[in-house]
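Appendix B, Record 12. Input sequence as logged:
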Amino acid sequence: MSRVAVAILNYNGADHLKKFLPTLIQWSPLASIYVIDNGSTDDSLKFLETQEAVNTIQLKENHGFAEGYNLGLEQIDSEYYILLNSDVEVTENWIEPMLRFLDDHPQYVACQPKVLSYNNKDQFEHAGAAGGFVDFLGYPFCRGRILHQTEEDLGQYDDPIDVLWTSGACMMVRTSTFQALGGFDIDFFAHMEEIDLCWRIYQEDKKAICLPQSVVYHVGGGTLKYGSSNKTYLNFRNSLIVLCKNLPLPHLVFVLMMRVGLDILAAISMWSWDHFKAIMRANQDFYRSISLHFRKRNKPKRVPRRLGGNKWILILYYIGRKNKFSKL
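Logged structural output:
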């Protein structure tokens, strides 16, 4: 049994593996490295055969992010998992701050580093930035990213902070907790499954934190490109699933009533027939399966103020013109 296992879920990401695995191997002496291949059809497996420092777990087909990780992680014996996207560049000593903190603080079960943009290394990256929160209507936001607007990293968020969710691009989690909670919910397929997992961690009175002493650089859009209508579909549908599973009932009813109108406005504002259809289909598919998601609820409790539960991001951003976390 290793103490730390870095697990990369790969689907046709040979180019990313060739680019980022050497640095990962160099800067991860404390960890065993695994690539869980999700039925790739490119030359990923051929390349991995040349990597003696990497353990390969082969899945026969593309199970998506959630189930692919669940199936792969079942085959890894370690005290901690680090889930890492294939399009992430790590830095020297990136594991140590996270490992040391979780070792010393048993009430915390998940953490993430500061996530910056690989293509603009002074800028926070959309997927996680410096820690994730959720507002009153269930919209996720981050230190360093409000809606689609990211901030320049000037050291303003270099203090550790409790968060509601940690980024699926790079998150460290106790293996015992991940397995006890059943891993990711496979109904998500991809996108927002880490928010749901971390919200379930919060429901168990455990904590998550962002530790900016650790830094990684994320390309983003490695499997589903930004601007993809399929990404839009998954984000809107999965956002509703997260809320259905994790909000207290009176709050959930209010939010779902609000989100119908807000999603329609979002669909219109995108000025794209493909994205409009994706958002409408996301709502339709969610409500068709709402009873399934409702059965997974487990006495949800309200998100506290410190984790964003009192904020209305759309009003603050569009009316209050507050486009930075520090201004909220």
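The longest strand covers residues 207-218.
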